[in-house]
């Protein structure tokens, strides 16, 4: 008996040492929180920087600032929101709105008081920025230099920890075939500029990119190992794959993890797993820890033709109605979805698709495909546990149930579930 105890004790010490060695040798997973500053305009439930729980995130990405199409300066598209009282934006989109007021960039930077380890970045570009403008900037050293000088000034002025570049998408739309190469040059020059800035400020800077996740976008625009040489990490937005459009009106989920055998060949590529594997297939397995899987905190909705027409592939009438807070057709925040369900749990049919590994719900002629605490856990097990990626990005943190409208176990139930599962893999991953 005592021998057994001694043996177990010995084994226990051995296992503990083994584990702690492993944990020490490994960099921890990132949890990147995209923050949409315009969430302040949501009626009744305005979101402000102070609403962000900075201890949940390792990085907060303030989204988005613009880049001038002619002189490649970084500028605020919404000075009233982004800049401080009396500060003026020299190059506003809207001349009537060029004076700062709410100071949200600084109020986001101030979150470092709550969590000294959190890194606050701004994202440049996004859906409102033309691919051509980035292409013109990136192609030639003189234009890149204008952009980077302006960016460094911004980083210094607001005491940011770095920047994210969201070029949607290199080599796509009105971009150019050589954009993929130019994108690497931009990241290379930005890294050099940050290294230079460090010699003056003594601080380190984080450089990231926001990337699309479909095969066409990846093929046309991303030299993954080239980019990985210079960036801290790349956030892969592996969602919004399928939704209602004029040409595709049949029910589909926007963010499946895996496909169904019965899916068409093109549809089999529209999953998070396919996107991640396709990135890795670009000679990127050795830099997998620089890839971060993006998970959305929104659902995509349909209005059904009839209550019974609620299965995948069946035709729909159109986009679902706007949410009472986010006010956009066809899209609902996670907190609007759980709130809707909570108002009348009995009215909703809940389903979890065991091929796609995602939840969807329907009620009469309303259909919602989204991610919940269970599907994000499955995505993390795939991305971190199986594919050894470097973390998760949540887009947007302000779509999560920050005010605990749904009276869940905690505020930010989605981000909290992500954090918990990332911690699990930090403890349990063998390397
Ligand atoms: C913020 O999140 C942490 C978990 O990371 C939690 O312990 C804490 O209670 C949260 N803070 C607030 C104000 O909700
Ligand atoms: C650099 O920017 C200028 C001004 O926008 C533009 O005319 C020029 O074509 C750009 N250079 C390249 C190589 O794209
Ligand atoms: C390095 O930074 C200093 C100060 O910001 C600047 O004057 C200089 O031009 C920079 N050098 C390079 C090579 O970017
Ligand atoms: C910056 O990074 C270097 C190398 O990783 C590290 O040694 C140093 O402590 C960091 N400095 C700060 C101020 O975080
Ligand atoms: C693949 O990556 C390795 C280093 O990670 C590099 O040495 C090699 O040149 C790359 N091969 C190709 C075809 O890009
Ligand atoms: C609905 O509200 C109850 C408490 O009233 C809570 O226990 C439950 O978790 C909520 N459901 C959802 C889906 O958030």
TrEMBL record:
Gene Ontology molecular functions: chitin binding; chitinase activity
GO CC annotations, alphabetized: extracellular region
Source organism superkingdom: Eukaryota
Record-annotated GH18 domain positions: 29-425
SUPFAM superfamilies on file: (Trans)glycosidases (SSF51445), Chitinase insertion domain (SSF54556)
Endpoints of the signal sequence: 1-25
PROSITE patterns membership: GH18_2
Coiled coil: none
InterPro entries: Chitinase_II/V-like_cat (IPR011583), Chitinase_insertion_sf (IPR029070), GH (IPR017853), Glyco_hydro18_cat (IPR001223), Glycosyl_Hydrlase_18 (IPR050314)
GO BP annotations listed: carbohydrate metabolic process; chitin catabolic process
UniProt entry keywords in alphabetical sequence: Disulfide bond, Signal
Keyword Signal: yes
Name recorded for this polypeptide: Chitotriosidase-1
Species for this entry: Folsomia candida
């Amino acid at each position: 008996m005592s021998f057994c105890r001694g043996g177990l004790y010995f084994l226990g010490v051995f296992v503990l040492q083994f584990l702690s060695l492993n944990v020490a040798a490994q960099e921890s997973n990132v949890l990147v929180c995209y923050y949409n500053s315009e969430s302040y305009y949501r009626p009744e439930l305005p979101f402000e920087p102070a609403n962000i729980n900075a201890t949940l995130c390792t990085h907060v990405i303030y989204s988005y600032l613009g880049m001038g199409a002619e002189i490649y300066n970084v500028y605020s598209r919404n000075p009233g929101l982004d800049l401080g009282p009396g500060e003026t934006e020299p190059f506003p989109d809207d001349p009537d709105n060029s004076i700062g007021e709410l100071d949200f960039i600084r109020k986001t930077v101030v979150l470092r008081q709550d969590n000294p380890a959190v890194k606050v970045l701004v994202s440049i570009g996004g859906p409102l920025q033309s691919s051509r403008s980035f292409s013109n900037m990136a192609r030639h050293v003189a234009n890149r230099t204008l952009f980077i000088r302006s960016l460094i000034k911004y980083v210094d002025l607001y005491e940011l920890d770095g920047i994210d570049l969201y070029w949607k998408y290199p080599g796509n739309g009105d971009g150019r075939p050589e954009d993929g190469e130019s994108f690497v040059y931009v990241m290379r020059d930005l890294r050099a500029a940050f290294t230079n800035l460090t010699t003056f400020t003594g601080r380190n800077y984080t450089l990231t990119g926001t990337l699309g996740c479909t095969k066409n976008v990846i093929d046309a625009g991303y030299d993954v190992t080239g980019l990985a040489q210079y960036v801290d990490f790349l956030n892969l937005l592996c969602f919004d794959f399928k939704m209602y459009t004029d040409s595709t009106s049949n029910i589909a989920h926007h963010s499946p993890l895996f496909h169904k055998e019965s899916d068409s060949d093109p549809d089999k590529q529209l999953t998070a797993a396919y996107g991640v594997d396709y990135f890795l297939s670009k000679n990127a397995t050795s830099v997998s820890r620089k890839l971060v899987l993006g998970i959305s905190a929104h659902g995509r909705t349909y209005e059904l033709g009839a209550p019974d027409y609620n299965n995948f592939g069946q035709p729909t009438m159109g986009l679902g109605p706007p949410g009472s807070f986010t006010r956009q057709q066809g899209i609902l925040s996670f907190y609007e979805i759980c709130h809707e369900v909570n108002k009348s749990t009995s009215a909703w049919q809940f389903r979890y698709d065991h091929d796609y590994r995602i939840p969807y719900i329907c009620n009469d002629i309303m259909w919602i495909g989204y991610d919940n605490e269970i599907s994000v856990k499955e995505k993390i097990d795939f991305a971190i546990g199986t594919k050894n990626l470097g973390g998760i990005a949540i887009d947007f943190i302000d779509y999560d149930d920050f005010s605990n409208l749904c009276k869940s176990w905690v505020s930010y139930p989605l981000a909290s579930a992500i954090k918990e599962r990332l911690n699990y893999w930090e403890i349990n991953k063998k390397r």
